[in-house]
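Write out the 3D structure for:
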Amino acid sequence: MAQRTVLIVLFEDVQSLDVTGPMEVFTGADRFAEAAGGAYRVRTASLDGGPVRSSSGLTLVPDSALAGAPEPHTLLVPGGSGTRIPDPVLVDWLREHGPRAERLVSVCTGAVLLAEAGLLDGRRATTHWAYCDSLARRHPKVTVEPDPIYVRDGNVATSAGVTAGIDLSLALVEEDLGREAALAVARHLVVFLRRPGNQAQFSAQLSVQTAAREPLREVQHWITEHPGADLSVQALAARARLSPRHFARAFQAETGTTPGRYVERVRVEHARRLLEDTADGVEEISRACGYGTPEAMRRAFLKALGTAPAEYRRRFHPAH
């Protein structure tokens, strides 16, 4: 088996987990494939070959300078506070060498460096939720998708904040070596294999604002705790002691989303947890989450996650 070189770029104030998370995945996969001659050769490099200090204070010592690094199959650019003012020399290096890689990957705000180098122009991409708006404003040629934990567009893959880099790396290992290898690495790291790329970065509660008025805030909490209940606008308005029209208008004004969309996200999230953590059947889960029928839940999953409930469960628990 031919080894693929994975080159991870280091720079001052890099996010250490953006580096070490993917490293653990690829080196773990290499150990899995050891009998077949290995699968990955993971290398790190900084501009001058010198140590860099991560944003958490951890010092990382690269294998070499970028100028002396091997030609990579996968070029991985991590994020961190060091991307806030991109190093023009590093951006120039990426602009020249990025297109040569068979696969270009970023974790978190590493997408900012790829965008500065023009490598995301005309492509779909994501980054840490806190920087999606600024990335879109600064680089209008990039189609920024703020919700997914990672986005694939051709040979370019970008991921959201920090741990999403592990999800993306596992997806790449599965693509390269198959599901068995990726599952072995995920089990060793005690992480799920694997969150779908279009899974939202946030839970339903974190994805919207908390209502300022107590009756609306209480309704938000009640929805989360009772996903299988009657969550129609009429029923929720009655709980808030408001008319349906007034409730719908006030809910959207204070949370930034409609009651229907909020309910939909809560139900999908609850169903996901039941699929992940229990052995309950799809029909039972669909009733518990207020869908009524498995087909209704299937449609909701396809819309929100791009995968059916049975496939979602299989990816988390292949034995089920």
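Residues 211 and 253 are 9 Å apart (CA to CA).
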